Amino acid sequence: MDAQPRTYAKKDFMSDQIIRWCPGCGDYAILSQAQTVFAELGIPRENFAIVSGIGCSSRFPYYINAYGFHTIHGRAFAVATGLKVTRPELSVWVATGDGDALSIGGNHFIHVLRRNVDLQILLFNNRIYGLTKGQFSPTSEVGKKTKSSPMGSVDHPFTPSALALGADASFVARTVDIFTKDQRDVFRAASDHKGTSFVEILQNCNIFNDGAWDQLTDKTIREERCLFLQHGQPMVFAGGKKGIKLNGLRPAVVELGNGLGPDDCLVHDETDPFLGAIVARLDYPEFPVPMGVLFRKERPTYDTLVNDQVAEAKAGGAPSLQKLLNGGETWTVK
Amino acid sequence: MKTVQSVDHVVIRFAGDSGDGMQIVGSQFTNTTALLGNDLATFPDFPAEIRAPAGTLAGVSGFQLHFASHDIFTPGDAPEAIIAMNPAALKANVADLKKGGLIIANKEKFIDREFEKAGITSNPLEDGSLSDYQVVSVDLARQTKLAVDGLGLSGKETERCKNFYALGMTYWLYSRPMETTERWINAKFKEPYREANLRALRAGFNYAETVELFTSRYEVAPMKQEPGLYRNIMGNQAAALGLVVGASKANVPLFLGSYPITPASDILHYLSGYKAHGVITFQAEDEIAAITSAIGASFGGHLGLTTTSGPGMALKTEAMGLAVMTELPLVIVNIQRGGPSTGLPTKTEQSDLLQAVYGRNGECPIPVIAASTPSDCFEMAVEAVRIAVTYMTPVILLTDGYLANGSEPWRVPNVDNIPAFPVSFHTETAGFKAYSRNPETLARPWVRPGTPGLEHRIGGIEKAEGTGNVSYEPLNHELMVKTRAAKVAGIKVPDVEVHGDPDGLLVVGWGSTFGAIRVAVDMARREGLRVAHAHVRHIHPLPANLLGLLGHYGRVIVPEMNLGQLVKLLREQSLVDCVSIPKVQGQAFKIAEVLTAIRHHQVTEAK
């Protein structure tokens, strides 16, 4: 009956809209990886719904040929919750930014994570307000000089992964706009995860905050400053020359060799929330920045629990609307 | 032998501390009276604090009930009897009591310590200040204690039964049977509290019958009602049922996103109990998530609904704009309360009307309708759903605290007789445009995500006519602004009905002022004044015949529980010099207040 093709090419997910991001923006790479992965997932195109808030990142739905909803600033999580709870069969993705998710949408962000609605959240973190032309954001570093902080920002920034884990996220991952293969791996993992999958994407705004992540992602130093996590594998980086070791409850960077090997390093267990709390706190310059899946542990999703209750209530058979109207105590006038 | 007086109507008020169980007693008296076949109207009045300090004026909770052998429209201006559980309750309410009225006072609380809490210097039961009234003082605590003796209740638990003792006394006084309340107690309480409450109720009844306290007892005959099945219903309950029925008539499942707020929360409570009817309720993290989740549900092909009051409405306004721009159906129910800001959370007001009609950024038209009685909340809820899905638009339904918690008998409609307005989701791929329009309603197609071949994007940025693509074109923007306005302006609403004289003074009301205006108009007409009443249920757009009526009568007054909001719309649209009759006290209009206004503004006949 269904004549729709079930195999797709990336171009099937490209919409007819002209992309209006600035040339050189990191968003292009993210869009491209998402389209590539969407085509591979085996999900009918009409079952994708992309929901976004406001900001450069939130133009994302317009450029994907699927159902899309560009909502209002900070509220994409709530719109997506209403959509997913009523239509659990859809694959719902939220595109958001550091200002949209963590500032104006901060409340919805923590609540969607604690409820564990089965969504994928792609947070484009460029540490700046781009669409409003360059104010500091909740992830901007202290001291950052912007149009609204001429003497340097005095705001302490969030660490999005630690915030997400604090809100009991069931899936936390990090990737980088230019790490295209890693990005696709993370997107696939996010899609596979039942529950809210939170993906922070370090993204470059080449107009208002160019090079914001260069100290981590530049080809010459990324092996040294990024920690590519693998579940069940020791935390080793810098081409195997360094590792993370636990001294009591505190992690430390150790040079490998001289009797110290990978076996002496901390082993990544993405299902361990205590370890997750440590991993989420690893940050440059003291540590390399973890990339990949920081934490992943499934628990019942909100949309399933809600619909299970409805199904349970309905199990007794179709109730009569008339009975509902009549209520308990009635009397009849003849 | 005590005499039994037949009277055609009675207004009584129960008043006590908010922990005294006055709302329970009031609702029990209401149910019993409804089942007896009297017409009735109730008005619960409680403080915002759950348990303000006992014995203080701030903690007084009241429940007024008007019941009659004929049609009535309001909970009554002045009670004939007050049951006062403490001096503060007496002090807060006695000024409303009719001269010669009855006071049943809980004697044990009329002591110095309680007078101090209530800010009274002498005992009103003894100082002659109540000489205009008939005072019966009963030691409720001691009598209740005797009644429940032997059941092993603590002092505090015994104390909690005394509201039923007082209820029993009033049942005797007004010739009400105890069965309905006995049934309720049996179902509600476990032993020994079940037995204790039953004993207290019956002891109160028997005490009133035995002891020579009352000079007479009263009976109020059932009224002649239209044949049918009846129940008693509160406004919030009626709204919840109307929303379920409306969604069923639209053939779409209902999704409620709501954040707890007084006095709207009861709708969330009711709907969360209707899961068997397919209703999904989402208690959101805030008011904004409440409405935006509902918008998400509407995007998904459910009927999105959000319910709120006062400040919650303010928080939702940006999202209402999104629903206007994306032209999705959405029902927003605002149970108005005293404002601004936190205002008077448990008191009633009609001061959100202009906010509902105009209060958003941009040219942002939303249809606004208003319920006029507790049971009308049902009809208007169905109407809100009808407009939302027929015209693909958010709809604001206004009720208020007075309707939400007030109750009246309701002839239950036959569900099958309520006209259906089933939604057909768009599935045709050929020539699909997300913002094409139904030529009659100007509604755009409603497409459920998951429909193959109709993948499209919507959002809050201005839409290009037809395609719905993002557009910044100046002339397109103006066209779309005008189209959205025309769509709402073109909503077909029924004409307003006129009650009363074909000329003279026209009293125009909306919302919960219905009862007070209707009774005042009838009284004025009996005095020989030429006056009529038009009650507006559709506010935006207004009924097509209303502006003509304003011009025809020429002399128009508009009583509203605000500083004059509907009157502004009427004046603006009709250029008739309508006069505002404002009242902003957190209290409903009394009939007498409307009657005074009618007399003042009456048209004097040229002789």
Describe the structure.
- The complex is a heterodimer of chains A (334) and B (607).
- With 334 residues, chain A is α/β, with parallel strands linked by helices.
- Chain A has a domain at 10-212 and 300-308: 3-Layer(aba) Sandwich (Rossmann fold), CATH 3.40.50.970.
- Chain A is 29% helix and 19% strand.
- Chain A contains eleven helices and twelve strands.
- In chain A, helix 2 (76-86) runs parallel beside helix 10.
- The longest helix of chain A is centred in the N-terminal third of the chain and has 14 residues, at 27-40.
- Chain B has 607 residues and is of the alpha/beta class.
- Chain B folds into three domains: 3-219, 3-Layer(aba) Sandwich (Pyruvate-ferredoxin Oxidoreductase, domain 3); 232-417, 3-Layer(aba) Sandwich (Rossmann fold); 498-601, 3-Layer(aba) Sandwich (Rossmann fold), CATH 3.40.50.920.
- Helices cover 36% and strands 20% of the residues of chain B.
- Chain B contains 21 helices and 23 strands.
- In chain B, the strands form five sheets. Chain B has a seven-stranded mixed beta sheet with strand order 11-10-12-13-15-14-21, sandwiched between helices. Chain B has a six-stranded mixed beta sheet with strand order 3-4-2-5-6-7, sandwiched between helices. In chain B, strands 18-20-19-22-23 form a five-stranded mixed beta sheet, with helices on both faces.
- In chain B, helix 2 (87-93) packs across helix 3 (112-118) and helix 6 runs parallel beside helix 8 (193-210).
- The longest helix of chain B has 18 residues, at 193-210.
- Chain B is globular and about 85 Å long.
- The model of chain B has no long low-confidence stretch (mean pLDDT 95).
- Chains A and B meet through strand 1, strand 2, helix 2, helix 4 and helix 10 of A and helix 1, strand 9, helix 9, helix 11 and helix 13 of B.
How would you briefly describe this protein structure?
The complex is a heterodimer of chains A (334) and B (607). Chain A has 334 residues and is of the alpha/beta class.
